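Q: How would the structure tokens look for this protein?
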Amino acid sequence: MNRVKRLKPVQGMAAQDERKAAAHLGEHLGRVEEAQQRLGELLAWERDYAARMQQGAVNLSELQSYRLFMGKLGEAIEQQRALVAEAERGVSEAREHWQTKYARHAALSKVLEQCLRDERKAADQREQHQLDEFNLTRIPSKL
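A: Here is the predicted structure in token form.
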């Protein structure tokens, strides 16, 4: 069995592994985007509620409720920031994994291309040798 036939399945598996890693990276990127969007929403709520409280006079019970709500909102924001950071770490890990799979696939593809070039060159040389021999046998001897 020649090298090309042995390498094609390996290169195909490497391509499949790369596609899976790329899809996995895409999922992680989507998680980061979603987490950042939620964080943005929480921060917008915080700004809106702070602006409302500055607009008018409030009684003591409203102020206490506001402080309690803002405290819980602050906790939610910190939790969401932690989720964003975790999602970003996941993206970094998934990107490294994909880069490894990409490099393997690229290297195997290069090896396969070189093998194909070598086989074509060898086939061309065999053909040229056969043509040369054929031409030598057709030349009549002039002795």
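The mean pLDDT is 90.

The first helix runs from residue 3 to 55.

Upvote if useful.
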